[in-house]
Amino acid sequence: MDLQNPVLTRMRAGDVAMGMNVRIARSGDIARIAATTGHDFIFIDGQHAIFDPETISHIAQAALGVGVAPMARVLGTDDLSTPQLLDNGITGIIFPDVNTVEQARKAVAITKFPPVGRRSVGGGYPQFNHRSMPIADATRQLNASTVVVCMIETPEGLANVEEIAKVDGIDVLHVGTNDLLVNMGLPGKFVGPELETALLRVIAAAKVNNKFAGLGGLRDIASQAAWVKRGMSFLTTQADIGFINAAASAWTSGVRKAITD
Length: 261
Fold this sequence. Notes:
12 helices, alpha/beta, 8 strands, eight-stranded parallel barrel
């Protein structure tokens, strides 16, 4: 049976794939927690947090073992660590700040093997439990199961989203709402016609081109659910640090309230 990516499986079935941002965790235990809490993928944030490649590989291989897709956000479409991450267990790459068709094509080229892209062949991939297999079969399966995510985070990216969506090899157009709003001169304005119009535009561009639309940055359940109903298929729920802060704060405040009641 060919490799299956739970993110693609969910989205192609018409469901939403949910992922946990990983910012502070540095062990494979976070992948097990993601699986236990109903997440389909982990989003290892190599853009805003500092990870060494070996740590990313350990987390990725733990994720593979529990059926969670290990994905990593890199520094950009020119990040030369991208193929190395894929060779060592990562099954999806999130490219930030994709503004042009050229950048989108570079994302595909660095992520996919020929004839789709220009990724170099390694071998002994953890996705196949390091077993030996024909190169043609391995590259075909890895191309089919590796998720390419282009983040739309600027007015320029939004203006070009219809053309970006046409690029073969891209799977997800993912809106980084925080950066998009900051770059629009509307920091933190999560409620308003500007963001709504932008999100609907990305959803429409994805749908017309058989891609999926993704949502990040909105951190309340009601908003996330509402946008999934409107067409978002790839959702980052919360970061590990956010989950810890929320649960710990609720617990301590709950105990103090119970003491005084």
